[in-house]
Design a protein that fits this description.
about 240 residues, alpha/beta, Rossmann fold, seven-stranded mixed beta sheet, SAM-dependent_MTase
């Protein structure tokens, strides 16, 4: 039997799903167990995302970013330029693009298959204010090996893993200034911010294995920091 807390959480989740999605019913049980996948999630904003299956990383990422609003997109203050580092299939970039149609979003995704799905979702959503860039952001310009996670397309990284894919790397400074920086780079955040902390209105970041406290200490003089699990919301002082 579900606890009252679980019932409240599930009810809030359903209300939120109905609020933001046109075809919300196709993405809840028992309907997720019926019919075929992949499916296209249609948001009321006009954003569209191809979701592989209920057990896929694309389904989990969609729920985190769109339904749970993990990165607090709704609290952004009229940004004009947003950088999405680790864009995956574009869930964050396109959601932000539809909420802020006057903003220019640059979405960085180095992995080939993810990049093709990113471009497909941009086209499906008619998100003309999103620019897709097939490069990895690091601390320097060059070429690196992207290690591919065979089970989770959202966990490809530059440091360890299975088969590799050669990718072009560029420094973050090439694309600054920006109002908002979103980063989910599977550990590359430690290298990206090793030498310089950017001056943005807001930074939203998922941290991975590494010295998280040391990284956040670099931001503390310039940003107010709010953390929940692995997600850090940094707002300029």
């Amino acid at each position: 039997m579900l606890s009252m807390q679980q019932i409240v959480r599930k009810t809030k989740n359903l209300i939120r799903r109905i609020k933001v999605m046109k075809n919300w019913y196709a993405f809840i049980k028992p309907f997720t167990q019926m019919g075929t996948w992949p499916r296209t999630a249609h948001l009321r904003s006009g954003a569209k995302f191809i979701v592989e299956s209920p057990n896929s990383s694309s389904f989990a990422i969609f729920n985190e970013i769109v339904i749970d609003d993990t990165y607090s997109i709704e609290k952004f203050s009229s940004p004009k330029k947003i950088l999405d580092i680790g864009a995956n299939i574009g869930t964050f970039a396109i959601t932000a693009a539809k909420r802020f149609p006057d903003a220019h979003i640059i979405a960085f995704e180095p992995e080939e298959k993810n990049f093709e799905q990113l471009k497909q979702n941009i086209e499906l959503s008619d998100a003309k204010n999103v620019t897709a860039v097939k490069k990895a952001i690091t601390s320097k310009r060059g070429v690196a090996t992207l290690h591919l996670d065979p089970k989770n397309p959202g966990a490809h990284n530059l440091y360890e893993g299975g088969d590799g894919q050669s990718v072009e790397t560029v420094p973050l400074t090439d694309f600054l200034p920006a109002d908002v920086l979103k980063i989910d780079a599977e550990g590359a955040e430690y290298e990206i911010f090793a030498n310089e902390i950017p001056d943005c209105k807001r930074i939203v970041m998922e941290a991975h294995e590494g010295n998280n406290d040391e990284l956040l200490a670099k931001f503390a003089p310039r940003y107010h920091i709010s953390s929940h699990d692995k997600i850090h919301i940094l707002t300029h002082k």
